[in-house]
Amino acid sequence: MGLKSFLEVKSDSHFPLENLPFGVFKPEPGSDARPGVAIGDYVADLSVIAAAGLFDGPCLRNSDCFTQPNLNKFLHLGRPAWKEARETLQKLLSATEPKLRDNASLRQKALIPMDKVEMILPIAIGDYTDFFSSMHHAKNCGTIFRGPENPINRNWFHLPIAYHGRASSIVVSGTDIIRPRGQAYPTGDSEAYFGPSRKLDFELEMAAVVGPGNELGKSVSIDEARDHIFGLVLMNDWSARDIQAWEYVPLGPFLGKSFGTTVSPWIVTLDALEPFSCDAPKQDPPPLPYLAEKISKNYDISLEVLVKPAGQEDSCTVTRSNFNHLYWTVTQQLAHHTVNGCNLRPGDLLGTGTISGPEPESYGCLLELTWNGQKPISLGGVTRTFLEDGDEITFTGYCKGDGYNIGFGTCSGKILPSP
Fold first, then answer.
1. Contacts within 8 Å (CB) and 24+ apart, 92-98
2. Does any domain span residue 260?
3. Are the C-beta atoms of 361 and 325 separated by less than 8 Å?
4. Boundary residue ending a domain (99, 120, 141)
5. Same domain, 197 and 248
């Protein structure tokens, strides 16, 4: 069974004592942003806990990382500080530790009901990279656009394919997404169409949050890559399929992707996910030495996509997938990203790419679920091929433990009409 907190934590909560994901919040409108951790239905204010002198270990005793408006300074400190913070908080919030439990005034300041706070982006994201690491997604996309004879390009099995994304348009869960405009694929001999996207899609992804960076010109080895990843978030990398299809040759995605990317507010640490590690798929051909891991692992994270159609009261589950479907691991992604000497920095975001499984119900986007609009899906009395204005998409993800969950909360966004 799980650990016991002095706070009531429901059995189905995403945020038990075993989790303690990190985020940034405002306790009330107009107040300063500050770091916190989720515990049950509460947010623990790390600035208050730090001011009380309760982070007394060698890494955090003299640090001001928990008085910052984002987590970047904390991320820069590295794994020893992350481990120290997590162990300190697990002790402070446990049922057997009196320092916070029995100090009523401190407890009132430090623990704020989650439904009272405003969650904001937890990190200042300098750069964002989106990978293409699910074999099932790659195969389906290749089949749709090129046919079943050779759906996946040869290079895909040799390296983690990626493109550089737009960091400025990454938003926190709950932010509305405006339907983008752009040029779309001509039909036959017609001219290219310009206007609001007619094939707006979600993409079920997760993203790794970079901790300590690396110097320009110095790569991160595959054996050290884990120490450069703080944790994971849910991510919806919205896509305008019609705009993307017309623009992506020969240089890749641009306006079809850069209009918005949504991430969940809570970063679940790799330490919290460690009990749920599992073998990654066997890679054939074997990767080159710089990508060869002694132990190649993913995490058993159940993922779900719900669509609430415009004008409807209820949401419908359209996808059930799992993080363990990724062919290229997040550590391979990071090592490959730096092998040419590219410098990563604290707070950089590395998206996994769409996470699709082998079965139709596990496909991670409408492009696959509707086979590029050829097979509409039913959503409680209405149908969709792609997203319509007013549709709301919610991602959720969790690991199932013995009597507890390690969860990510939700990652949601609603489509607003193009101006």
1. 92/49, 92/54, 93/5, 93/6, 93/7, 93/17, 93/20, 93/39, 93/44, 94/3, 94/4, 94/5, 94/6, 94/17, 95/4, 95/5, 95/6, 96/4, 97/6
2. yes
3. no
4. 120
5. yes
Q: How many CB atoms lie within 10 A of CB 189?
A: 5
Q: Give yes or no: residues 96 and 153 share one domain.
A: no
**210 found inside a domain:** yes
pLDDT at residue 258, as a whole number: 98
Helix segments in 320-394, DSSP class H = 330-338, 366-369
Count the neighbouring beta carbons within 10 Å of the beta carbon of residue 22: 27
Report the alpha-carbon distance of residue 268 to residue 122 in Å, rounded. Answer: 12
d(CA 201, CA 183) in angstroms, rounded, equals: 16
By the 10 Å C-beta count (0-12 exposed, 13-18 middle, 19+ buried), 167 is classed as: middle
User: According to the model, what pLDDT value does residue 1 have?
Assistant: 60
Considering the domain architecture, whether residues 196 and 290 belong to the same structural domain is answered as yes
Q: What is the pLDDT of residue 189?
A: 81
* pLDDT number for residue 186: 79
Region at 20 (left for phi over 0; alpha for psi -120 to 50; beta for the rest): left
Using alpha carbons, list the distances in angstroms from residue 51 to 15, 23, 61, 103: 24, 18, 10, 14
Flag residues of the chain having pLDDT under 70.
Answer: 1
The reply to whether 337 belongs to the active site is no
Domain, as residue range, for 35: 22-120
Core vs surface per residue 218-254: b (16+ CB within 10 A) or e: ebbebeebbbbbbbbbbbbbbbbbbbbbbbeeeeebe
Separation of alpha carbons 271 and 321, rounded Å: 22
Q: What is the CATH number of the domain that holds 113?
A: 2.30.30.230
Query: In this structure, are 141 and 101 located in the same domain?
Result: no
Is the domain of 194 the same as that of 290?
Answer: yes
CATH at 301: 3.90.850.10
Q: Which of 14, 76, 136, 137 is catalytic?
A: 137
Q: Are residues 160 and 307 in the same domain?
A: yes
Supply the pTM of this predicted model: 0.97
What are 135-179's pLDDT values in tens digits? Answer: 999 999 999 999 999 999 999 999 999 999 999 999 999 999 999
Same domain for 254 and 387? yes
